[in-house]
Every structure is written in structure tokens, then in C-alpha cells.
From TrEMBL:
Subcellular location: Cytoplasm
InterPro entries listed in its UniProt record: AB_hydrolase_1, AB_hydrolase_fold, HAT_MetX-like
A biological-process GO annotation: methionine biosynthetic process
UniProt protein name: Homoserine O-acetyltransferase
Organism from which the protein derives: Mucilaginibacter xinganensis
PANTHER family membership: HOMOSERINE O-ACETYLTRANSFERASE
All copies of domain AB hydrolase-1, residue ranges: 40-322
Main localization, broad class: cytoplasm
Positions of substrate binding: 201, 319
GO molecular function: homoserine O-acetyltransferase activity
Gene that encodes the chain: metXA
Amino acid sequence: MSVEIFKYNKPFELESGKQLNELEIGFNTYGTLNKNADNVVWVCHALTANSDVFDWWKGLFGAGSYFNPDEYFVVCANILGSPYGTVNPLSINPVTGQPYYLSFPEFTVRDIVKAHSLLAEYLGIKDINILIGGSLGGQQAVEWAISEPAKIKNLIIIASNAKHSPWGIAFNESQRLAISADRTFYSNTPDGGSKGLKAARSIALLSYRNYKTYGITQQEDDDHITGNHKAASYQNYQGEKLVNRYNAYSYWYLSKCMDSHNVGRNRHGVEKALSLIKARTLVIGIKSDVLFPIEEQQYLFRHIPKSALAELDSFYGHDGFLIETEALTNIITSFFKTDVKGKIIELQRTA
């Protein structure tokens, strides 16, 4: 399905006080808004994903899946800084007539939410029945549920947190160090920093999976091998795969955006901010997640008023939120079947 473009032709002010002279947002919709306008499912995507949620979240979204277009009006919008239809560092700066590159203003998760709120208004969406996101998408979802609490009826946060941790920031900084070590990053060309981006992706993968994942999927069958290991080939392959579809500048800015996530900023602290959420909330954590440890989801559960918690066993680590669609479907089904306020949803899955 082709991406639609929403154009906001007024200056868009960022949380920093800087502004974008023009704002474009790429988005996809599936299904039809019903007569009561109460069937909206809004998906907040993660770091390098795009607005085609039926492509990257198969098994949870799509015909025959839990979130199907026959029942729901599904919206997924590309985030600020990402190169899939929304204004980003490779976009043309209308002031200079040249791509922004490193002159693109830094932005926050709150800026992403503010932009998507404008899109929702454009689409005639007053209420969002279900707001769902994982990882950086979950950060957007919890931020939106705080900034417009009356608008969000049900909230699903997967493998995410209330503020980005020092551990997560350290991972992101390590990736930025890899990008900036590639001197071409400062060349202001569309493929600038490609080698650094490849290395950054390799670092990121170590946080998306874990020791057990690699032990099962990349184990050597031959005890005599001394080089050309599966794990090494896998890191190279995944790095090249991202380079072929992404750019170092978007990755750089979005990693900084993730670091900015803190719902307590200018709201008298994180716990006070979380208490503002009115949505019926499902928090899902993955026990093997290295990047967003289960303690972060337990914290959300304790401090969001009408919330339930599910802890998922998966050997895939953080990436389990994209892979374990059958388990997620079972959890979400259980959540909507009963009054689960303050409940821990028991669903165990072993590798």
C-alpha cells in the first residue's frame, strides 16, 4: 500500500524552541472509520520501521489477524526524522534549497507525538480506541497518553519505558560514536556515514537479542572452524541490510530522540506524569529483554492507574515484540475480555 503524505504548511515549533518551516508526515491507513468513529487503532512504530505496519507486524496486523481492517481503522504514521515520507535530515530545507543533513534540528519524542496529533486532527480522529507501540513506539504511546489523556481510551505499551535508561543511552551513544568515526558522515551526501551506520547496527543487534538467542541461532556445527563464523556473517549481513534501506543521519537523530524520552520532564516527575494517564492500559514486558529490562515495564504497571501487566518468555529478547505475534495476540485477547485493572496476565511461553 502506498504512503500518503500529510502537509502542514505552517511553522512547526519543536520542544527545543526551534522550528521546522514545513512539516510533512508519511502515513498509511487500513480499513474504514466507522459511523461512531470509535474503531481507531493507532500504531506507533519503532526506530527504523515505517508506516506500513501490515508489512512489519504481520501476525498481529492484517487480514485474519487480531487487528484486521474489516473491524478496525488502523493508522500508522512515519515518525519525525525517519526517511519514509516524513521530514528528515535528507529532506530539502526550504530556506537553503539544500538537504538539512546535520543542520536538521534535534527533536524529542514529544515532538513526534505533537506532529502525529496534527495528523489525527487532519484525519478527523477525535478519539483513539487503541494506541499501541513497542520500543520507541511504546515511548511515543505513553507520552501521547499523558499529553492527551482524554483522547486515548486503551493503551498497549510493549517492551518500553517511562524514561530512557542510562544503559539504553550508553548503547545509543556507542552507535553514534561508530557513525561519527566514519569521516564520510560529515561529507553531507545521502550515503554519508554508511560504514559507521553498518557498525552501529551491529552494536544495536547485541541489545535487541541476547546471549541465548545467538547461542541457538548462530551456533557453529563444525568444531574445526577458526574463522568465517556464522555470528560474524550475521552481524555483517544485518548491517548491510540496514544501510541499503536507511541513512546514517536519520539514525543519528532518532537515537538522540530516544535518549530524550522522559515523561517526567516539566511534569513534576515521572510518577506524577504516569498518574495522568486515563486509558485502560496493558503493559507487556519480555523477560529476556536486555535493552528494556522487565523492571521498566513493572515500573509502568505500578504507576499507571488502570493497568495490567503481562510478562512474556521469549528467547528473542527485545525483538520478541516483533516476532511473538501469536503470544501477543493471546495476551491482548485476554486483556480485552475481562476487567484486568491491577492484574498480572499470566501467559508463559518457553523457547
